[in-house]
Amino acid sequence: MSKISKFFKGGSAASKGRGGPSPQEALARLRETEEMLSKKQEYLETRIERELAVARQHGTKNKRAALQALKRKKRYEKQLNQIDGTLSTIEFQREALENSHTNTEVLKNMGYAAQAMKKVHENMDLNKIDDLMQDITEQQDVAQEISDAISSRATFGDEFDEDELMAELEELEQEELNKGMRDVRLPSVPSTSLPSRPGQNSHISCELHSCFTCVQLATQKRAEDEDEMKKLAAWAS
């Protein structure tokens, strides 16, 4: 048993055995004593001022009366100092008693709260609590799965393979490209011959004529092919 519990238990038993006052009664008595001493202070301060006035009044005219007044003033001042010390002691005792009473009430209320918690926990089974928390966790997981399923994007009609679709699209584009190439018309070969240079024989002129013609045809065909490819690219895009 701690010293605090022994103190409160022993103090309570002693109070009951002696019939001692309660903390409230003791605090009331201390406040009454403080009030009485405060009034005594006011009385002594008044008497001190009066004796000073008497001493001033007699002065050197009646030294004996003036000295008697000063002696009484000194006694009153001594009593006043004693009362100041007594008030300080009573104030300290009153504060200590108030704190003790407050601590007692706090401990009592904490004991009530502990008993209430114990009574509440008597009807609780830790195993049942664990099972309940596990059920709550499982239901939260189910709710999350349902929420994810509802919020996910619908995939109706997406069961086809995207790679196969892309391959089919490339085949269609290639067919269109081949079709466009078949429809391209090549230009006809010009019937006129190129003029021959002076001093060259007919054989060299024929070869030059054929060579320039081939170059011209190849250049023209390349330009037309490029135009057709641009058109096909524009159509495909």
Automatic annotation (TrEMBL):
GO cellular component: cytoplasmic side of plasma membrane; cytosol; ESCRT III complex; late endosome membrane; multivesicular body
InterPro entries (alphabetical): Snf7_fam
Compartment(s) where it occurs, according to its Swiss-Prot or TrEMBL record: Cytoplasm, Cytosol; Late endosome membrane
Name of the protein described by the UniProt record: CHM4C protein
Family: Belongs to the SNF7 family.
Region listing for Disordered, in residue ranges: 1-24
Matching Pfam families: Snf7
GO biological process, one term: vesicle budding from membrane
Highest taxon in the source lineage: Eukaryota
UniProt membrane topology term: Peripheral membrane protein
Keyword list, A-Z: Coiled coil, Cytoplasm, Endosome, Membrane, Protein transport, Transport
